[in-house]
Amino acid sequence: MYYQINGGKKLFGEVEIGGAKNCLLPLIASSVAIDGISEIDKCPPMTDVLNMIELLRRLGAKVEYGENRVQIDSRTINCVQVDENLSKKLRGSVLLLGALLARFKRAVVPLSGGCAIGKRPIDIHISALKRLGVTVEEENEKLYCDATNSKGNYVRLTYPSVGASENLITFASLTKGTTVLDNVAMEPEVVALEKFLVLAGAKISGVGSSRLEICGVEKLNSIFFSPIPDRIETATYLTACLMTQGKITLRNTCPLHVKCLIDLLPFDVVTCCDDCICVQTQRKIESFGKIVTGPYPMFATDMQSLVLSLSTVAMGQTLIFEKVFENRFSNCQELVKMGAKIDLFDDCATIFGVDQLCGADVKCSDLRSGAGLVLAGLNAKGTTRIFDVFHILRGYCDLAKNLNNLGSEIFEIKE
Ligand code: EPZ
């Protein structure tokens, strides 16, 4: 399937933000550590979410899913080997490592390898688990892990890795003794996982900070939990409005989580209340000077491709430094096909704003670059066709439908 976008349409109206993919994946994975039933709402059927649910079913969990709500009974799990083929489709499968080791003291997890944006190693996960007494053997591209003799310890992460933090927090929750995790990621999705585990009975102090003290408990109990709103989805619609002009309201979102983006914008363009954001502009946006991606609360790397597209039609020059992933500028060549003026050197893209992009045939290489190309197509004069949109469906359920409800003209065409 590909998207055909007739660009240049202004956007008006409202859009509801769904549960965050990068919150739902660790919550669903960590439910494996709960000896009971976990119920999670605001769970849209994104491809990654459906694949994570299938991974749990293949471990033996009883999972019911419908109407944006998932109910996971982990008491029936009878396997600690994560499905190899499915985990190749979903890098987030590595998040099952901490939960399986926590509950069953053993785990066999395929090395899911790199992806379009980078090598995605898991050395930080492994060295931290070893500090807690886990043995890790690699064989045939799989990790065989044993936590029989694990116990609490002090662990400092060499980099505040989101996935490593999530694995360690879940694992330490059921590891005897006290574990101190230092330099833990503070992304809102990581904090949400901390709250999820505390609600299930984990003893975690320092929730929301970069230093956690976790006293292992015997068991985690059944809970009901709501994920945080998707901040990247929020940034996507916000940026879509800035690239096409018009006025839209984003509902059921969290303005604080997109502060890094809002802070770049003129004060009269965005107004926020507790759970909604209103964005309106009838004029072109000024360029942003220098943007550097980094761990929260720095500028989010997942928003980089969105602001890259926006910069191509902002007035003036913008420098974007991508400091988190080594190959996250794949969109530049596609945007140049649409008339963008971008110089790329090492980890820095220099963008010189043009008046308007021109429609072209382009291809997305990953989830967030795909979203960036949709935004470019919304702005472009004429028609843009975006191929390999399956990447986009991994993290957005109704992107085309929601944008069309706001006034865009996107056709989903089966090849
Ligand atoms: C999570 O990936 C997100 N995925 C990513 O979103 C997001 O871009 C990333 O965090 C950063 O915010 C999910 O939550 C499912 P990291 P994760 O471990 O956990 C290096 C999307 O599009 N690193 O914080 O894999 C790594 O190579 C995705 O929704 C090591 O070197 O991110 C990268 O350069 C893309 N060794 C940097 O750290 C390790 O052991 C950040 O990775 C782990 C990470």
Topology:
Blueprint: E1 2-6, E2 11-16, H1 21-30, E3 37-40, H2 47-59, E4 62-66, E5 69-73, H3 84-89, H4 96-104, E6 106-110, H5 123-131, E7 135-139, E8 142-146, E9 154-156, H6 162-173, E10 178-182, H7 188-199, E11 203-205, E12 211-215, E13 223-225, H8 231-244, E14 246-251, H9 259-262, E15 270-272, E16 276-281, E17 289-292, H10 304-311, E18 317-321, H11 331-337, E19 341-345, E20 348-352, E21 361-363, H12 367-379, E22 383-387, H13 390-393, H14 399-405, E23 410-413
Parallel strand pairs: 2-14, 3-13, 9-10, 17-18, 21-22
Antiparallel strand pairs: 1-22, 1-23, 3-5, 4-5, 6-8, 7-8, 10-12, 11-12, 14-16, 15-16, 18-20, 19-20
Helix pairs in contact: 1-2, 1-7, 4-6, 5-6, 6-7, 8-10, 8-12, 10-12
Bound molecules: ligand EPZ.
The site of ligand EPZ has 24 residues, from helix 1, helix 5, helix 6 and helix 12.
